[in-house]
Specification:
Elements: E1 2-10, E2 13-19, E3 24-28, H1 35-45, E4 61-69, H2 73-81, E5 91-99, E6 104-108, E7 111-113, H3 115-123, E8 126-130, H4 134-138, H5 143-150, H6 152-179, H7 183-202, H8 208-220, H9 222-238, H10 244-261, H11 266-292, H12 297-317, H13 321-339, H14 341-387, E9 394-406, E10 409-418, E11 426-427, H15 434-448, E12 456-460, H16 468-481, E13 486-490, H17 494-498, E14 502-510, E15 515-522, H18 525-536, H19 542-560
Parallel strand pairs: 3-13, 3-14, 8-12, 12-13
Antiparallel strand pairs: 1-2, 1-4, 4-5, 5-6, 6-7, 9-10, 10-11, 14-15
């Protein structure tokens, strides 16, 4: 249920807070007062597209908030699955701001949200119907969606089965397409063979490149290394003067003499002797490395050639040796598929034939559910049309099988109707009057309300083109629908306004500087005056006031008898 609608800086509205309630909520006002602004604001916060004209002149932004209360645990769980936290009060606050730069800021319960997320939430909670929505009735492609809403619970599992089958079917078609290459197949086999042989002949190993780079670095600097090793050995061991090792040995002899005098300095001798032993070990290692260092031009050229080969393969098949080896593995699989393609294509065609039969059966199951529910829907819509003064109407849901299928099955659904005795049913587009179209739509809403989880229905002047007794019947049907659903109705007809449980008056006022629209909740005598205005026009007389009171009293009696 829509509990509150807060509007700020929208068109002619500075700021407005509308608190709706259960039952039939009426919004009325003179032509041009701004009734469409309210519906536009609601459509905006529910995800409709906005332009800069939506923002009130002189302001930088427009903002609309909608506070919704959830009844059904099923709906609560569905909203939670969309990532929305629902408090103990079972409410959802949707806020949307739109600025002059065209930027949207959307929030759900204070958390950032996308426009798509808001649309998905609101589609589960509110159904807006305006005069433009007649176009969905006139468009046969939309009829299947309306019928499926009526049989939604029964269709959930069959449609899921069909969707999964179609996914599998498309995958098979793609595989068949990949195999069906004709002459290109032989060229690809040769090409894949070439790539595999080229990689295998290289005999790559995973860490080879790093090892080669390290070896190349040493070989290319061999002369420098040889010079450094030689100089180090000379300084430590073979200097023409005294080497480092000679000086340490002299120092050891001196320390021995010191110990003979002062035995407590034995630790100095021992430590230096350890240093001497370690130095001798280092000298041996350096000599070994020095003896092994030699410049090998042949090996260096061999390494360069190997690295060039690796670099060339990396350019073709991947940024690393691991990638090259992975590419070879994938190519072998592709080659195997191509070589054995004839056998695999035959297998795929058999699988395709099997799944086509399964899809056909799934479509038949879905179609049977539709046909069963269509019969029930036809009967109920005709009852509502009868109540709305279309006693001679015949409503028919035509279901035909198409040559193609999609996730909705293979059915083509179209609503047909005749409004006069002796005539054949025809497409809804052949209906002459907008009033009849409004009553068909109201009948659909009334029937769907028993299966829909949607709690709030919004009607934007769908009473256009009707009057008198027909208007009264539409008003009574709308009031009856409001017993179990929240109805918000913008209307210009007193018959519908009189049946309201709550009434909001939309006024436009001007001064020397600007024009603004206000929205006020009215009661008692104010409602009488508004219905008198709706009945008699701008001039309110004692007669129109009396007529308005009588209309309200009659409406109360009708509602009491529901």
């Amino acid at each position: 249920m829509l509990q509150q609608l807060y509007i700020k800086n929208v068109a002619l509205i500075d700021e407005a807070l509308i608190e709706f309630d259960k039952g039939l909520n009426i919004l009325s006002g003179e032509t041009g007062a701004g009734k469409s602004i309210v519906i536009g604001s609601l459509a905006f916060v529910l995800g409709a597209r906005a332009t800069k004209d939506f923002i009130k002149k002189g302001e930088d932004f427009a903002m609309v908030e909608a506070l919704l209360t959830l009844k059904s645990e099923t709906i609560k769980n569905e909203i939670r699955e969309l990532g929305v936290d629902i408090d103990d009060d079972s409410s959802v606050l949707i806020a949307r701001t739109f600025n002059k730069s065209g930027r949207n800021v959307c929030k759900v319960n204070g958390r950032p949200a996308t426009l798509g997320m808001i649309k998905e939430i609101c589609e589960k909670l509110i159904d807006i119907h305006g005069q433009h929505e007649h176009q969905s009735l006139l468009n046969p492609s939309k009829h299947i969606l309306l019928l499926d809403r009526f049989c939604e619970n029964e269709l959930l599992e069959p449609k899921l089965t069909l969707t999964n089958l179609i996914k599998h079917y498309k995958k098979i078609l793609k595989q068949i397409s990949n195999f069906s290459m004709g002459k290109d197949r032989e060229d690809l086999i040769d090409f894949f063979n070439y790539q595999i042989v080229e990689i295998e002949n290289a005999k790559l190993s995973e860490n080879e490149e790093n090892s080669l780079l390290e070896e190349r670095k040493i070989l290319s600097q061999s002369e420098k290394l040889k010079s450094l090793y030689t100089e180090t050995i000379r300084n430590l061991y073979t200097s023409e003067d005294l080497s480092a090792l000679d000086k340490i040995n002299i120092s050891l002899n001196n320390l021995q003499d010191i110990i003979n005098i002062d035995a407590e300095k034995q630790y100095l001798y021992d430590d230096l002797q350890d240093v001497c032993a370690k130095l001798e070990e280092i000298i041996r290692d350096i000599k070994k490395y020095d003896n092994n260092i030699e410049y090998d031009e042949y090996r260096l050229n061999e390494i360069e050639s190997r690295l060039d080969l690796i670099q060339n393969l990396k350019r073709k098949y991947g940024p690393s040796i691991n990638d090259i080896l992975a590419y070879k593995k994938e190519t072998k699989i592709k080659l195997d598929n191509l070589i054995n393609s004839e056998e695999k294509i035959l297998k795929l065609y058999k699988e395709k034939e099997t799944i086509e039969k399964q899809i056909k059966q799934a479509c038949i199951n879905i179609s049977n559910i539709r046909k069963k529910q269509a019969s029930y829907l036809e009967e109920n819509i005709e009852k509502h049309l009868f109540d709305l003064g279309m006693q001679n109407s015949k409503f028919k849901i035509d279901i035909k099988q198409k040559d193609t299928f999609n996730h909705n099955g293979f059915d083509k659904v179209e609503f047909l109707i005749c409004t006069n005795l002796g005539e054949d049913v025809k497409p809804l587009s052949k209906i002459a009057s907008g009033g009849e179209m409004s009553r068909v739509m109201l009948s659909l809403k009334a029937v769907l309300s028993f299966v829909d989880t949607i709690d709030t229905f919004i009607f934007d002047e769908i009473d256009s083109g009707i009057s008198g007794r027909t208007a009264q019947m539409v008003a009574e049907k709308m009031s009856l629908l409001a017993r179990n659903n929240q109805i918000i109705c913008i209307t210009h007809l007193p018959q519908i306004a009189a049946m309201g449980d709550f009434h909001f008056l939309i006024n436009k006022s001007s001064d020397d500087t600007n024009t603004k629209t206000s929205i006020d909740h009215i009661e008692g005598d104010e409602i009488v005056k508004e219905i008198a205005r709706m009945t008699g026009g701008a001039t309110i007389t004692d007669f129109t006031l009396a007529s308005a009171k009588e209309m309200l009293e009659q409406a109360k009696k009708i509602k009491d008898n529901f």
